[in-house]
């Protein structure tokens, strides 16, 4: 394997030759132009997509905030309207329980009901029922004959529940006027705590509906007032058939309210299947939920128009840019094709020269540097050591009893043994600046720049021990395995030594290692 400094030199020569050719320059320009055109088009697309997506999310979020604010406002309005009616009921029940509902109290109660009814515009009426459901008094002063409301939901609730708090029932149609009303009621007790009747205030649904209709929530928006048991109390747009419909399986009660008493989302309606941007909030103190929603399609209508216009502009820009870029790249490719034809022969010649350079510096059998590269490298490193007054060491390595090995196993096995030894030597010199070379026959050399005797001897022993650990069979050796002998020499920059002197010293140390029993490393004196 050629030493890296020479390989780097070859690479630089390759790069210089390639860069100097018009073929490479033109090809790079074509590729750069294509990449630039693609990058610009992709950037335009990404910017357009990002702006479109951000605008869409902003519009949805903006409407979610608007719906949340609207739900909060309507919740406060519902709470205030019901609270006013409930306050009247509380005072009324307190008066009745203190003074009773006897005949002598009825004129006073009727005047009180009528006065309170006139004070609150949202009230449809105020009513008092006894324990049997019979009408005792109402705010109109006109009692229907034999009227009885014991079948109404609010009456049954108070009769069966001793709780004293207010009760908001489902929307009903008044039996006296036929109008849709929201009943708010309280239980009346006898002194012993038993059920004595019901005090009822009815609120016009139209009181809420007028406000809901005045709010702009698009053509397909909705506002719902829903009871805590998931039944529709009022819906805008108003539809009598929907009042009382259960939405317990809708997203409001299955997904949203379990997470909190208020919030926003984008969900599909349980009633009509339309996807809407919604806001919701529970009414404080009362079992009601205000639900406001705008059609998602209407929310995004203007966004779609803007996005369509932006898309048309981006596509137009990309089309113009693409046409200009295509024309430019086509001209460059024509130039490239002409240059490619002219330089084809030159490229082949350069490739042959590069192959010859590699072969001239590499040993074909082992893949190590050959003798030529070794000589050039050694000469260069001695010059560097002289200039920098640094150390330089050399290892001369020879296979012990190599002739015996070849005689017993044959030259093919001998070549494989040399390749294995080359690999072991290469694995044990890790520094980028070191060079391992095949010196000739079964002899190898290792040049170690910036290394003294001690460091070189350590490397030599590391290589020798690695060969032992490889256990390459050699039955004609004293050890029964392949061993090596190593001579170590070091260059002294003050002695003005030559490459031949350095090699000669290492060779003499190698001779001493051979004559002293082999399988050892010897340092030249």
UniProtKB/TrEMBL annotation:
UniProt xrefs under InterPro entries: Diguanylate_Cyclase, GGDEF_dom, His-kinase-like_sensor, Nucleotide_cyclase, Rev_trsase/Diguanyl_cyclase
Pfam families the UniProt entry points to: dCache_1_like, GGDEF
TM spans (from-to): 308-329
Protein name, entry field: diguanylate cyclase
EC number of the protein: 2.7.7.65
All residue ranges annotated as the GGDEF domain in the record: 390-525
Keyword Transmembrane helix tagged: yes
Native source species: Pseudomonas shahriarae
Molecular function per GO: diguanylate cyclase activity
């Amino acid at each position: 394997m050629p030493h890296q400094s020479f390989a780097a030199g070859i690479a630089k020569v390759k790069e210089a030759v390639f860069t100097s050719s018009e073929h490479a320059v033109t090809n790079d320009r074509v590729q750069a132009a294509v990449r630039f055109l693609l990058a610009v088009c992709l950037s335009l697309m990404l910017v357009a997509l990002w702006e479109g997506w951000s605008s869409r999310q902003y519009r949805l979020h903006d409407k979610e905030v608007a719906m949340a604010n609207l739900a909060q406002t309507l919740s406060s309005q519902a709470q205030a309207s019901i609270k006013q009616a409930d306050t009247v009921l509380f005072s009324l029940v307190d008066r009745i329980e203190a003074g009773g509902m006897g005949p002598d109290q009825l004129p006073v109660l009727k005047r009180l009901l009528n006065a309170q009814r006139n004070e609150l515009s949202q009230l449809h009426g105020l009513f008092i029922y006894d324990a049997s459901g019979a009408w005792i008094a109402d705010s109109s002063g006109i009692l229907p004959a034999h009227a009885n409301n014991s079948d109404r939901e609010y009456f049954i609730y108070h009769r069966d529940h001793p709780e004293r708090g207010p009760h908001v029932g489902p929307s009903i149609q008044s039996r006296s006027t036929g109008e849709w009303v929201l009943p708010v009621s309280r239980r009346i007790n006898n002194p012993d705590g038993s059920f004595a009747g019901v005090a009822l205030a009815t609120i016009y649904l139209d009181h809420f509906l007028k406000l809901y209709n005045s709010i702009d929530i698009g053509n397909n928006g909705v506002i719902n007032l829903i009871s805590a048991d998931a039944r529709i109390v009022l819906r805008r747009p108003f539809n009598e058939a929907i009042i009382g419909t259960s939405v317990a399986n809708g997203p409001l009660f299955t997904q949203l309210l379990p997470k909190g008493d208020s919030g926003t989302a984008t969900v599909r309606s349980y009633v009509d299947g339309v996807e809407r941007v919604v806001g919701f909030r529970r009414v404080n103190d009362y079992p009601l939920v205000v639900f406001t929603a705008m059609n998602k399609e209407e929310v995004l209508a203007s966004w779609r128009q803007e996005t369509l216009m932006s898309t048309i502009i981006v596509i137009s820009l990309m089309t113009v840019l693409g046409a200009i870029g295509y024309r430019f790249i086509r001209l460059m490719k024509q130039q490239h094709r002409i240059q490619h034809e002219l330089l084809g022969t030159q490229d082949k010649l350069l490739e042959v020269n590069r192959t010859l350079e590699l072969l001239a510096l590499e040993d074909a059998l082992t893949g190590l540097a050959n003798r030529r590269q070794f000589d050039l490298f050694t000469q260069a490193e001695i010059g560097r050591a002289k200039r920098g007054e640094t150390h330089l060491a050399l290892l001369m390595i020879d296979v012990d009893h190599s002739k015996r090995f070849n005689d017993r196993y044959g030259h093919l096995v001998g070549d494989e043994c040399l390749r294995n030894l080359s690999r072991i030597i290469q694995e044990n010199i890790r520094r980028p600046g070191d060079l391992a070379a095949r010196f000739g026959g079964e002899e190898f050399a290792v040049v170690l720049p910036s290394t003294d005797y001690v460091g070189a001897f350590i490397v030599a022993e590391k290589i020798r021990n690695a060969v032992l650990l490889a256990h390459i069979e050699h039955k004609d050796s004293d050890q029964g395995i392949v061993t090596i002998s190593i001579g170590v020499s070091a260059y002294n920059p003050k002695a003005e030594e030559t490459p031949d002197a350095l090699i000669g010293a290492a060779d003499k140390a190698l001779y001493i290692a051979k004559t002293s029993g082999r399988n050892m490393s010897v340092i030249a004196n």
